[in-house]
Amino acid sequence: MDKKISIDYSYTLPFITEDMINGYKDSVLKAAKTLADGTGEGNDFIGWRQLPTERLGSEELKKIVEVSNEIYENADLLICVGIGGSYLGAKAVTEALCHPFYNMLSDEDRKGPKLLFAGQNISASWMNAILDQIDKAKSVYINVISKSGTTTEPGIAFRNIKTKMEKKYGKIDASKRIIATTDAKKGALRTLATNEGYRTFIIPDDVGGRFSVLTPVGLLPIGAVGIDIMKLLQGAQEASVFGAEQDLSLNPAFTYACIRNLLLQKGYHTEILVNYEPTLHYFSEWWKQLYGESEGKNGKGIFPASVDFTSDLHSMGQWIQDGQRFIFETVLNVESPMNDTKVASDKEDLDGLEFLAGKPLDEINKCAMKGTLLAHYDGKVPNMVINIPEMNSYYLGQLIYIFEQACGISGYLLGVNPFNQPGVEAYKKNMFALLNKPGYQDARKALDEKMKTLPSGKVTK
Ligand code: PA5
């Protein structure tokens, strides 16, 4: 039988106590029931809960596999255009499971297409570099992803990419190489895809962006670089099964939600997600969006931060050990790395490290982790450890589902709607006003007035 992801919260005691956990258990179970019954706020966006079970064996999954295989076989470059939830899931999983230098491998070693992302910023130099890569590649495919179909960043990027693709391949061939993932009916991207004859995949109405990695949003690009998307879904499905356990000790999502919210109640309002595998960097970025957008509302929410250890022990380590005490850490512990190697021997031993010769690197990495856990615990930083048996798509699927489920539960424990994101509109309104978008004249006037009232700072010359 496959193993299960587990949580060790030993290093959060005595910052919180077993009595506190027992006392809080009923609240966690109640919040979990609200989520499971679909009776909480935002209940029209909980379709992600059934995704793994519904997708496995579905016609849609067959189509995703078919198109991702076509890209894998025929493309030497795939560019995914999207932002936020329409970007981070695919980025997180592909970075975690592909070779660390995937895009630098030879075609023979890489097998699938190089993978680049666009539309996740408005940087001119990023755009130019992307367009340059389209020029240089032989066979380019584009997956443009936007649920609303109206988001500015991917909208701008796709205009330029589409123009470049049509110049390179001609309109008809370009349209065969562009795949749109968007709403079933609404939005500019749906209209464009229909007009241009692009192949399309649907983002379900009841799944929000940051919960959409197990829809075509994530599955198509992940499959297109040769990652086993069935195993990813199977892992998530397994997590949905043990996610129904009412006993906290058997349910990592419940335990995680319980511990982090108790820590918040004790004043630990910043959670740092820690990894010891640099390929998990973007997994933390995905997690930050998941928790940041879900919880940060009405003056509430745990602030999600992340570090890559041991790299960041040489930059953020001092602060974590000894700075202000309002942080806790959640450590992603990959029990078996994808592969291991041993420390080389050098008899001259100028660096004094010969005592490590022949030792597996992962054993040293684990000692760094253990040493850091103990040091940070001594420094009064509570630590939770999430044990991931192996770094593969099955366990990543489990982890994704556990985090999503715990996020919904945490939101209800906090008393916020975890499935909306009203706050992200504020910057867009100002940006459009500053760009004189039609219909934004009043907003522009209000902004000009506001700017007159702002305190003037000094600009150094
Ligand atoms: O989680 C969310 O809803 C957001 O991060 C969106 O995914 C992001 O804004 C992109 O939106 P869209 O897919 O509509 O382009």
- DSSP strand count: 10
User: What's the overall geometry?
Assistant: globular
What is the typical, i.e. mean, pLDDT?
96
Q: How far is the first residue's CA from the last residue's CA? A: 67 Å
Ligand roster? 5-phosphoarabinonic acid
What amount of the residues lies in strands?
Answer: 5-15%
Largest sheet: 5 strands, mixed
Please write out the topology.
Elements: E1 6-8, H1 18-37, H2 51-55, H3 59-74, E2 77-81, H4 88-97, H5 107-110, E3 114-118, H6 124-136, E4 140-146, H7 152-169, H8 171-177, E5 178-182, H9 188-196, E6 199-202, H10 216-224, H11 229-242, H12 252-265, E7 270-275, H13 281-295, E8 303-308, H14 317-322, E9 327-336, H15 361-378, E10 383-390, H16 393-414, H17 425-434, H18 441-453
Parallel strand pairs: 2-3, 2-4, 4-5, 5-6, 7-8, 7-9, 9-10
Antiparallel strand pairs: 1-10
Helix pairs in contact: 1-12, 1-16, 3-10, 4-10, 4-13, 6-7, 7-8, 11-16, 12-16, 13-16, 17-18
Bound molecules: 5-phosphoarabinonic acid.
Task: Describe the protein in words.
- The protein is of the alpha/beta class.
- Helix content is 48%, strand content 13%.
- It has 18 helices and 10 strands.
- The chain has helices spanning 18-37, 51-55, 59-74, 88-97, 107-110, 124-136, 152-169, 171-177, 188-196, 216-224, 229-242, 252-265, 281-295, 317-322, 361-378, 393-414, 425-434, 441-453, and strands spanning 6-8, 77-81, 114-118, 140-146, 178-182, 199-202, 270-275, 303-308, 327-336, 383-390.
- The strands form 2 sheets. A 5-stranded mixed β-sheet has the order 1-10-9-7-8, sandwiched between helices. The chain has a 5-stranded parallel β-sheet with strand order 3-2-4-5-6, with helices on both faces.
- α9 links the parallel β5 (178-182) and β6.
- α13 (281-295) packs parallel to α16 (393-414).
- 5-phosphoarabinonic acid binds next to loops.
